[in-house]
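Sat 14:20. Reprocessing the chain from the morning session after the first attempt stalled halfway. Input below, unchanged.
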Amino acid sequence: MKEHLQEIEDDQDILILSRPKQNAGFVVLTMSEYESLKETAHLLSTQANTLRLMKGIKEANAGKAVIKKLSFK
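Finished this time. Tokens:
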């Protein structure tokens, strides 16, 4: 198991443990991958936000992105 966990961490991959007789399973992933999935789910949690994000991606792909430098004081 230690080798599998190290491989998951190194490759940013997941490990699926299935229990066919119980019709259940488990997923093992890194904390950063889990946090990324949570963030994506949050960003896409409302239709309005999803549409706003898709519009932004479309504009960026069309070269209409505006790059701004942020200043933190």
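Helices lie at 2-11, 31-43, 47-61.
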